[in-house]
Design a protein that fits this description.
The complex is a heterodimer of chains A (about 170) and B (about 425). Chain A contains four helices and ten strands. With about 170 residues, chain A is of the alpha+beta class. A four-stranded antiparallel beta sheet of chain A has the order 5-6-7-8, with no helix packed on it. The termini of chain A are far apart. Chain B is mainly α and about 425 residues long. In chain B, helix 11 crosses helix 15 and helix 14 packs antiparallel against helix 15. Chain B has a two-stranded antiparallel sheet with strand order 1-2. Chain B contains 17 helices and two strands. Classes of the chains: A alpha+beta (about 170), B mainly alpha (about 425). The interface between A and B is medium-sized, with 26 and 38 residues.
Chain lengths: ~170, ~425
Amino acid sequence: MSEKKTKRRDFLFTATTAVGAVGAAAVVWPMIDQMNPDASVKALASTEVDVSALTPGNTLTVLWRGKPVFIRRRTQEEIDEARSVKMEDLIHPEKDEDRAKNPEWLVMLGVCTHLGCVPLNDKGDYNGWFCPCHGSHYDTSGRIRKGPAPWNMEVPKYEFVNADTIKIG
Amino acid sequence: MSDHDYRPKSKVGQWFNDRLPLLTLANHLTDYPTPKNLNYWWTFGGILTFCLITQIVTGLTLAMHYIAHADMAFESVEHIMRDVNYGWLIRYIHANGASMFFLAVYIHIFRSLFYGSYKSPREIIWILGIIIYLLMMAAAFMGYVLPWGQMSFWGATVITNLFSAIPLVGEGIVTWLWGGYSVDNPTLTRFFTLHYLIPFLILGLVVLHIWALHVPGNNNPVGIDIKKPSKDTVPFHPYIVIKDGFALLMFMIVFAFFVFYAPNILGHADNYIEANPMVTPAHIVPEWYLLPFYAILRSVPDKLLGVVAMLSAILILAVLPWLDTSKIRSAVFRPLYKQFYWILVADVLILGYVGAMPAEGLYLLIARVATAYYFLHFLVILPVLGFKEKTLPVPLSITEPILGGSPNLAAARNKESKIE
């Protein structure tokens, strides 16, 4: 085969294609990114909840970013049950101490990590939550114990603003 | 084919046709040579065209009254049902029309499976059909979200969450699909837009589907290649037009039964409750036409693998022309395949049934066995069968078994009588 020389035309062809591709990508990106959460959705990023009326053994469900958040004031039995579980028995090992800094209060997204349904309170084989959609069982720490869900229910960023108020987000 | 020789009779016709050969196209469509032994299972192509046009026309009229907003969508649907003139009729036709569309498409697909219509040289027709089917599922799913009832909302939540199974980028994709941190107004407006778009994409693909069909011509119940035009063919018009028309009329009786006598029987009562992001309905079930795939999803205990299995169950159909190694098309001449075909039909029906039941105990076990069999059919049975099966003698033409002259006359005649 004879040696092929790069001609001026080859260079122009490659350069034009490259600039064209970059230009097309620059136009396509805004079309894709417009579907991501907009400024008004992001503005609703935090919410404050008054939990003074919540008694032990009860759960308050509030809406945060369009998703339910469970605020559970746990009884001593539930805390003991959650803290006595061995790590090797867990599908997604997380210590209860890390999930509930203040053991009495468990705050987590009330969203099943399988396909996003809202699990039911005080149901299931582990006295915690049970997802009716595809049968995931969660324990009193909101950790997945049985069923198709891959992870524990997510603990969002939250803090006690004062003794009665939790700020989520 | 005599297409290219066609010349309109009138001067005006000739003048027009020389500039835009639409009349040549019309002539091709009327004279199109069709195998004369096509049975009623071949009428579903026409029925499906009718279904698509019905959905587009009723959809356009509904869109004149529907409001795509999370606060108003549910009410606007009730407004259509109660206030808009004949709104109830148009909406019930549209809602039941989706079910009728899927009923027809399943018969159409299983017709192809029985008579081997997906085999060479019709692979492209088949693959276009699978793409249409995928788009139909997307359109149906997004359409079901629009009334913003409980099933709409939670169906949308569960299905969009399937994408979260993708490693690393899954969560980002789901947020992008939602346009927020949950299914909400941005999700509804984009679903409405896409639900409006997809039928027109399907329409374009249907044109390609028919175009690709008209290159080799129709398969037929005997599954042999035929000469066109010949004594084995009849012109599309009037023979097939009349047959399709009669079948369509029968189909419309079934359609009308659902619209007028049982308009809600295929839906879920929960969807007459407005969407509530705080409460999931006790039992989330997709529409009947998605149940077999839902059963496959739930039969796998792992989230990612469940999603992979469900998608594979659909996409495996696209490579079917290469999985089926048999040279013989029609199941009429494939005694073993015919039995496996009916087992597959039963398997899919069983999957549909367990898909509607809670995923536990015996139902779960049945779902797992049926899912395994589904893949076994396509990945093991079909490829092996092509080599092992002893097929029956195939006639050389459609007329031959009737007029005689075949070395296998008796056998062919015997088979021919079974077709009818």
